[in-house]
Amino acid sequence: MKCPFCEADDDQVLDSRPAQGGTAIRRRRECGGCGRRFTTYESVERTSLAVVKRDGRREPYDRQKLLAGILLALRKRPVSREQVEKMVDGIEATLAEQHRLEISSRELGGLVLARLRALDPVAYVRFASVYRQFDDAEQFVSELTNLMKGGSSADSGGQGPSGLRRSERSPKPAI
């Protein structure tokens, strides 16, 4: 492994431990050339996932792009980066369990919305406004009303953000 500081190809592994929920290995290294320490991660290379856009184009799945969209919705909200990373890890785990080779951007957005709704309602509405392409204030009001009632959005075909119809989701507990 080349040192990121001096580019020497002489390093020693000082420590190895599981990372990212056991899906990667974190290695702490020390460069033999300059003596500086750095961290590397090793993970299994997964089959590439394609995202099918609304216009039919296919793009390679990009974790950083998904994170950026979620972080934008969560801007100035009391949610840690670690919580967001775990949310994206959960989405990726769901897709891996399903052995998916491609997913529509609509479906991927639905997975994000379902998790954002539980994590932060304000971020949920922010993300929904872009994902569902709100055109006017009435759509915001409608989404907020549905959020407050715990119902589903009208433009999702009677489906909530999880993609399930209200009758298919778990009932809300009585308070």
Class based on secondary structure composition and strand pairing: alpha+beta
Widest beta sheet: strand line-up: 1-2-3
Query: Which value, in Å, is the CA radius of gyration?
Result: 21 Å
Low-confidence stretches: 152-175
Order of helices and strands: EEEEEHHEHHH
Proportion of residues in β-strands: 15-25%
Give the tally of structural domains. Answer: 2
User: What summary fits the major beta sheet?
Assistant: 3 strands, antiparallel
Overall mean pLDDT stands at 80
Distance between the termini: 57 Å
* Secondary structure: number of strands: 6
Shape: elongated
Number of separate helices:
5
Helix share of residues? 25-40%
Domain ATP-cone: 49-139
InterPro entries: ATP-cone_dom, NrdR-like_N, RNR_NrdR-like
Protein name: Transcriptional repressor NrdR
GO molecular function, one term: ATP binding
Protein described:
A hairpin with a 5-residue loop joins strand 2 and strand 3. The chain has a three-stranded antiparallel beta sheet, with no helix packed on it. A three-stranded mixed beta sheet has the order 5-4-6. The protein starts with 10 loop residues before the first strand and ends in a 26-residue tail after the last helix. The protein has 175 residues and is an alpha+beta fold. Helix 1 packs across helix 4 and helix 3 packs antiparallel against helix 4. The C terminus is likely disordered. The protein is 38% helix and 19% strand. The chain has five helices and six strands; from the N terminus they run E-E-E-E-E-H-H-E-H-H-H. It is elongated, with a radius of gyration of 21 Å. The chain folds into two domains: 33 residues; 111 residues, no CATH class. GO terms for molecular function: ATP binding; DNA binding; zinc ion binding. Pfam families: ATP-cone, Zn_ribbon_NrdR. Negatively regulates transcription of bacterial ribonucleotide reductase nrd genes and operons by binding to NrdR-boxes.
